[in-house]
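Morning run. Coffee first, then this:
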Amino acid sequence: MWLRVCLVGVMMIILATPVLAESQDSYHVHVTGLACPFCVYGLERSIGKISGVDSVAVDLKTGLIRISMSGDVTLDEAVVRETIKDAGFTVEAFEPAMPIALQHDDGA
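And here it is:
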């Protein structure tokens, strides 16, 4: 029985690791001023040039930018704000991404 409990515990740790890692190296940035797909393309290229950025995804409709970092690199908020400002947009919010396991639905 104890072996089963240990195995279940190890499995839970292994399965939770990607979710925990996401919270440490992913960020959400909300911007205003996006008007077209060209805006999205320009922001993705500009932010993608920041050292340590692994991937960038910009949602034109919501103005949400999801930035994933490589390894243990931390994203410098001041650098992101300056990069976005230089591209002609305004940062409304900058925050580490919340792990999926910690998100909750208030409607449930």
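The first helix runs from residue 2 to 25. Good start to the day.
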